[in-house]
Amino acid sequence: MFAAIRAFFLSSCLATSIFAAGFSFSGTFTNDNDLAYFKVNMGSFGVLTIQTYGYAGGANQAGSLIPDGGFAPAISVFDDTGALIAFDNLGGTLPNCNGRGIDPTTGFCFDAIVYDNGTLAIGPGIFTVVLSQQGNISFGDLSLGFTYDANNLNDPSFTGTNTGNPGQKFLDPFAPVTRTSAWSVDFVSDSLRSVVIDEVPEPGTIGLTLLGALGFAALRRRHS
After folding, report:
1. How far, in Å, CA of 48 to CA of 114, rounded?
2. Topology given in CATH for the domain delimited by 3-214
3. What does the alpha-carbon distance between residue 142 and residue 41 come to, in Å, rounded to a whole number?
4. H helices within the chain, ranges in order?
5. Nearest CA to 101 among 58, 62, 137, 144?
C-alpha cells in the first residue's frame, strides 16, 4: 500500500549513540508526485549536508553502493514554522557539478546537494526535509504543499505530461530517457541527533498518513 516506503534499506539497526554523524535512506516512489518526508533533529548549531545519490549513483556515507538510473531528485528544507529555508531543485550543470555524480546514461549531474558547498548552517531544533522529483517544488511554506501533489495540480505522471508523453512516469527532464523510481539520500553533520522518516503521502489520496511509528532510521555511526 505504501509503495513509497516499501524499499527503505537500512545499513544497520538503531544507533546506540545519541549523536550520529551520518544517516542514509533509500527507497522508491510509485508516482511522479510522491514525496518522502524526514524530521531532522539538530542537537546544536552546525553544518548539515544533504546529498542524493539515486540519479547518478555512487557510494553513500554508510558505505553502500547506490546504482545509477533513478529519477532526478529535489530536496527542500523547512524550519520549525514550515518556512522554506533551502532547496535544490535543479541539480548541477556540467561542467560545474559541485560534488554530484555524472549519470553514465544521460551525462547529466541532477542529484541534489543542499548546499553545493556544504554550508547549510542550522540548529539547534527540528527541521523538515522533503525529497521530491525535480519540477515538483514547494510553494514556499510546508502547509501549501508542492506543485503536483494531490492538493494542487494532482498529476501523478507530470514528467510524462511535461515532455509530451502523457501517462508515462519518471522521465528525465532534459533527455528522452525513462528513469527508475529509486531514490537515495544522505544526511551528514556532527550536530545531528537523529533523522526520522516522518510522513509520506499515500498515492492517490489527498491526506497525509503519519508514519512516525516507523521509528528512528538512525544508521551506522560514521567515525571521523
Report:
1. 8
2. Jelly Rolls (2.60.120)
3. 17
4. 158-162
5. 58
List CB contacts of 122: < 8 A, sequence separation 6 or more.
Answer: 42, 45, 46, 48, 77, 79, 85
Amino acid (one-letter) located at 54: G
- The region that residue 163 occupies, defined by phi over 0 for left and psi between -120 and 50 for alpha, beta otherwise, is alpha
Domain ranges of the chain: 3-214
Sign of the alpha-carbon torsion through 92, 94, 95, 100: positive
Q: What are 137-182's pLDDT values in tens digits? A: 999 999 999 999 999 999 999 999 999 999 999 999 887 899 999 9
Partnered with residue 12 across adjacent β-strands are none
Its pTM surpasses 0.85: no
- Single out the residue of 15, 26, 84 nearest to residue 51, CA to CA: 26
- 129, β-bridge pairs: 38, 77
